[in-house]
Amino acid sequence: MTYPNWLSQRSYLSGERMALSFEQQQWTFSEINTIALDYAGKLSALGVNESSRVAVLAKSTPEFVFVLYGCLHLGCEMVMLNERLSSNELAYQINDAEVAFILVANVLKQKVDDSRVVLFGEIENAKSVQFEPQQQWAKDRTISIMYTSGTTGHPKGVRQTAENHFSSAVSSALNIGITPEDVWLCAVPLFHISGFSILMRSLIYGMGVRLYEKFDADQSAEEICNGSVTHISVVGVTLERILTSVEQASMQASDRFKVVLAGGGPIPIAYMKRAKNCGIPVLQTYGMTETSSQTTTLQVADAERKIGSAGKPLFLYEVKTEKLGEIGEILIRGPQVTPGYIGKFSEREVQQDGWLHTGDIGYLDDEGFLFVVDRRSDLIVSGGENVYPAEIEKVLSAHPAVQEVGVCGAPSEDWGEVPVAFVVLQKEVTAEELLAYCREQLASYKVPNQLTIVESLPRNASNKLLRRELRAWV
Amino acid sequence: MTYPNWLSQRSYLSGERMALSFEQQQWTFSEINTIALDYAGKLSALGVNESSRVAVLAKSTPEFVFVLYGCLHLGCEMVMLNERLSSNELAYQINDAEVAFILVANVLKQKVDDSRVVLFGEIENAKSVQFEPQQQWAKDRTISIMYTSGTTGHPKGVRQTAENHFSSAVSSALNIGITPEDVWLCAVPLFHISGFSILMRSLIYGMGVRLYEKFDADQSAEEICNGSVTHISVVGVTLERILTSVEQASMQASDRFKVVLAGGGPIPIAYMKRAKNCGIPVLQTYGMTETSSQTTTLQVADAERKIGSAGKPLFLYEVKTEKLGEIGEILIRGPQVTPGYIGKFSEREVQQDGWLHTGDIGYLDDEGFLFVVDRRSDLIVSGGENVYPAEIEKVLSAHPAVQEVGVCGAPSEDWGEVPVAFVVLQKEVTAEELLAYCREQLASYKVPNQLTIVESLPRNASNKLLRRELRAWV
Fold it and tell me: What residue stretches are annotated with the AMP-dependent synthetase/ligase domain (chains A, B) (predicted)?
């Protein structure tokens, strides 16, 4: 059970089509394949081979894509590191994954102090050896590994196979459609499934990617309105900024522009109405690292009628709740679902009876629309980033002045949600000191937006923290 | 390894979209699913079940689609009978397939005299029983069986699985693109892979099918030019008639019309130029029953530059020749390739080392374009129908007055090719008598267009018929 090598096949079948564009530069599939082969040869010279597992840490630049595609040709597993994580957080993932190499963009070299580091500059300067790529890729080959936390606060490395990515790309195409002229604007992180899946779709569809190092609302608005891109992935906060830019310039989306794919929780209906006025179709999507991106989507036509819904599954997915027709844990089945974890959690079964137990709570209405009513492990989604309360609680609990701590999400106009913390002290300390401590240990988006010192935390009879009551305190 | 039931899933996900249209009637995916469930219940009442193998014989009408979709829900294997075959030819396939039921459109009932026949009228009148469709389809489930002949003149029943059809539909989408607004005009036979694959794409994409009972050049031209359809499958002869109609009416293809998919051998460059003048993009395709339709396609942009080429493979296919870079037998690999035959040939391996050996001879040029230089078993393709010389020779040889016979293809302006026969007699008989005999035994399109009585046939040293020399006689 194999696929033809996606890079080679695309170069062969649509070599002259635009594969990647960044600022003023662009590369065709033929050109990018040549570069990827060269990078594979360079990595090979540095000792990376098909049985290597490598970690990659970079910003969204063409060099990052070249390294990823070089690794794809080589056949090695890639652990996608989040550049916003603290050094401690990165070290945990690198060690759990037991990687052979850590490929790091020069600008991020201070993030990782490890003998396994190879800087992008060293890769570029390496003397490429002749390299013959595998022409067949096994379907169960692990392409990427992304860490995601859970109830325990310990991030788990989620495997995403060639079949996961392929099925996800196909299901998306069967939902949104594809044409040879499509260009997807990618200003979401490549180390997240939201961005990585754009690259996978690019190779599978023969579709152009317009890559941004950083999200830029005005430029995104400009490209949506002049038709130089057809798709864009956003979260609520970035959508809002694009809409403001389009509105301020009194522009309208180009006829060539097709759809905004909006993740990270339901989009406020006010945004949906503003988008409609700008001629911008917005498809809301619910998905996760374990399902290799989109699982369900809410069509534009249903957005008003089904406010707050996550929509219906993509073609190859099935979604149900534990007890049919009732509120319960959301279960997902399909070829996009990860086969499991690596590292410390590699023994943990990710599927039960073929179904992924998401931990999210929801229900399907009588028309089969999914509503997510409570998220796994009290997940906070802040500007598209997943933030797990347990992870922040673990850090704060370790502070000598802290007796106990509870974290929950608070609504935020900009970010959708932000984390806030409630702390019971055992020694004197200021909230500011505790926040400074958090900033050392955690990625900035995980640092509580507010930290309140309280007398005690709401707990139930068996002493379990009642996070719902915490949220009522907000 | 399963798929969600395609009919149920499409009804759930895009129930309100148009699934089928015929003359003035149309049905949405929700409606057609309800009908299909009703037909499944009726067929169930008549004794058909998921372990049944049924043969289906009908013209391209909505009822035919309802029966097919009912069978899909039931999970039974469908032997697709060619309504143009003679009763003898049909009997061979029915017996080889050992079907439990033969579902026959009322208008064709004189074609089959068999106790297993159930007429469509009987199905419609049956009292439907409550029926719960399978919600999961195994990937290796055999959906359809189509007979195709070969060197021996004995038709072999080719299995096409759910995975074959799904992969074929996906590969086509990755090549041509898909959008939710697509409507495919189907005036090619549903019992051939060319037509059947349109139905499969419809279910997988959620795409509308505009069904014609008979090809109609003027109506097809009208629909291409008014934009009520976006795709159409043709062979050379039907393309030419459509072009003539468009030209006579001084029309142009609608902007909404996307592509003509042209099978049955290379399209004359004169047609390609006429199509271009009419604004009609023509994609030439090479495929076969064993590959579940399209294997390679020649893009519009390459048509003039690569006259006579069959193009490049679809994304999930690999194509090579036996000796790399040289003329040789064409080998094909991919998830669209049949796992094998049924009946008398069920033991025959269809793949060797994972590759389908097509019997066709060809080469790949330095850019990777496939050229087919000689077709399997001296195959004659006449108006899109495959005609195997050996099959006609077998029939004529059985005539008491015939000593030996050789059949080959002759060029035809209308049909691309037509079969012609050369006969050596052992008793007195006229050519007209022999042709009348053929008409009793063979589908009309297989009856030689011309039959010449000769002294001897060209044979080589080992007495093998030299069909190339025969062709030189034409």
Answer: 15-341
